Amino acid sequence: MHTVIERELEIQLVLSPERSIPVPARLTYRPEDPYAVHIAFHVGSEAPVHWTFARELLVEGVFRPCGQGDVRVWPTKSGSRSIICVALSSPDGDALLEAPAGAVSAWLERTLRIVAPGTEHERLGIDEALGKLLTPTPSDDLYLRDPWPSDETGETQG
What's the rounded Cα separation, in Å, for the pair 149 and 122? Predict the structure, then answer.
């Protein structure tokens, strides 16, 4: 069974210090992709705009400014409301988004209960995959034998 943790919420796309517009968004977390969070923004186009970045970045950004480059996250207040700001940068443009801190924190808490921080690697199955990859098979015996014995082995050809 695949668990998916989703949360629909309305975020604000900041156009200027005086103006912002509401944008429906969906936060998604999948334990089989344990390091990532996915956000889909429904901006009125045929397909939503998707962003994927580290869950750890969002977790840290709830408490303090973090990130560099394409994704930056920090907590702040807007009036009496606690919000999480997310600044996104791409070749297509930049966006500043404001999300309700309570909704984001509650959703993150659900993801952390499913996959605790520091245990993400266990969900990837790397050890099992490497074990399967490196397990010898009967046909490997053909490759392990020396097809051209050297003269030093004492074998004679005849």
Answer: 44
